Amino acid sequence: MSKKYTLNELLIITCAKEIKDYENVILGVGLPTTAGALAKALYAPHTTLMMESGIIDFEPLIPLNHIADAHSCRGFSYATDLFSAFTMTYRGFVDVCFLGVGQVDKYGNLNTTCIGDYYKPDLRLPGSGGAADFISYAKRTILTMRGGQFVEKLDYFTSPGYLEGGESRNGSGLFPKDSGPSMLLTTKGVFRFDNETKEMYLDKIHPGVTVNDVKKDIPWDLKISSNLTTTERPTDREIDFVRYFAPVESAGRELMMELAVTSVFNHAQERGKM
Amino acid sequence: MESSAIENKVMSAREAINRFVNDNDELIIGNYTVGTCCELVYEIVRQKKKGFTLYSQSGILDVDVLVNAGCIDRLVSTYVLRSGGKKGGGAVERAMRAGTLEWEDYTNFNYNARLVAGMHGFSFIQVLEGVMATDLFKKRGFMGEDKYRVIQCPYTGKDILTVPAANPDVCIVHVQRADRDGNAQYWGAMGSVAAAALCSKRIIVSCEEIVEHDVIKSSPHLTIIPSYRVNAVVEIPWGAHPTEVLGYYNLDRFFYGMFMMSNATEEGARAWMDEWVYGCKDREAYIDHYAQKFGSGMLDKLKARAFFSAPANYGSAFISSWDENGRERTMGITLETLEKTMEERGMLCE
Lengths: 274, 350
Description:
- By secondary structure, chain A is an alpha/beta fold.
- Helix content of chain A is 29%, strand content 25%.
- In chain A, strands 2-1-5-10-12-13-14-15 form an eight-stranded mixed sheet, with helices on both faces.
- In chain A, a hairpin with a 4-residue loop joins strand 8 and strand 9.
- In chain A, helix 1 crosses helix 2.
- By secondary structure, chain B is α/β, with parallel strands linked by helices.
- Chain B folds into two domains: 13-123 and 165-300, Glutaconate Coenzyme A-transferase, CATH 3.40.1080.10; 316-350, no CATH class.
- In chain B, 32% of the residues lie in helices and 17% in strands.
- In chain B, the strands form two sheets. In chain B, strands 1, 2, 3, 4, 8, 9, 10, 11 and 12 form a nine-stranded mixed sheet that branches. A three-stranded antiparallel sheet of chain B has the order 5-7-6, with helices on one face.
- In chain B, 46% of the residues are buried.
């Protein structure tokens, strides 16, 4: 039995295993950048890590703050611009990209724009950024969802998954053949998309989670894989890497914030300012 | 264009914004996520300029500060991060709910393409058509039909998606260094910084330091905006704080977090603006206030250590037509002999 791990560590490690050696990978901020660093260090040393800001072939030394963070690596191989990072994707040079999810439907279509009415939103989410472009043209896309929700109908359709399912994405003539989301990772399990119908199904559940736990978040009758398995337990080596490289990711946002505030407060007290 | 070589372009942020930014302008923030031209943004707010259509590739603090101040009527952007996640809020969301702000949503590429078209003098440009399946194409804001138009490719006959060029009135942008004429050098995450500046009619450059022209001459690959396009050069150390500038300082996570927490509510945002934007007359006052409140040690910890780019050799074998013996390198004779020969051949005119 390997050492104990946090849920965040499990998610990062599960994500990292989706990257194969020699692939060109576009990383999004947060969990994916740590997953990319882990993959490059442990399983895929020849992978080329890229960001939409034009930072190409970098090796992160600390977790990245965002997708234009050249401070977190020591140099990189190719400084191109955003325009070229996307045309490179359009032309088929990007194997896999990672996107975060606000709302997702059963065909992997995404909303990261708003909750409620588009013109007078209840919540105005950040917007597409590069998401709609990347999921359109990367050979495959890994979706990660920590705070989002499953819905029957998106409040706003930001980024194209498998549209209405079946052959609709391929048939639209808008996307490279057989591109689209290949996995959705949530805090409860791993979902994949049926080869024929393109509807998502539950492929793995994380240790300690039941199928009912998963189902209660989902408004449609979720399909379950006939060989449903439990998400692979991380190894000591994987856990050690994440904990050393990205301790704030291991800790998670809440604990990190709590400890950070305490730390700032303590420093201020030492200086006699508060 | 008002820029010319003899004009002194070096000025304060106050003068630059006063002279080159007008109410109701189309205003573009040149920086993308990093190295945000924060001091230029704050100065616009302090001068109470308003009525802008704001172009921003991807904004957080910069966009929200301008929207908090009521400077922006219309926004063209792809991404504005919400403060404090789902539980939080943000100036853009508050203004949209109040009906005082309209937002035209694009994807990163399709927004950037509008600048690229503008920078090269084209009236429109082909963009990535995947969005035709989505609401980005179907739902239009204030641009209406002109947000996207579909035309037929004259070569393949296929439908292609296009966006119109953007040529904003004025770009504000922060870079690492520039010379007094405005040759602006920037490195790191290139984003859409050059396109944002070059598509604009006027350009205000702020920089961490003004350097000698020779520095620019020996590293032209770092220059993203040539001097003849630049109207104003403003030297502002820490001009992008709390965002980061590669080679100068890191992101101030603590202070940025403070902004995000404050910005999540209207009252919080107002207090933050009063203290850090209206309450500091310029960047020097801002940095003084910061150091007084948190200790200067906080900023020292953010300063970049050196990791220099390997120098690129721009040298050549010789830089004169005449060799060390005074002979021309191709013809093999001295200037004196050349002149004598030309005289003998009757080639010289009175």
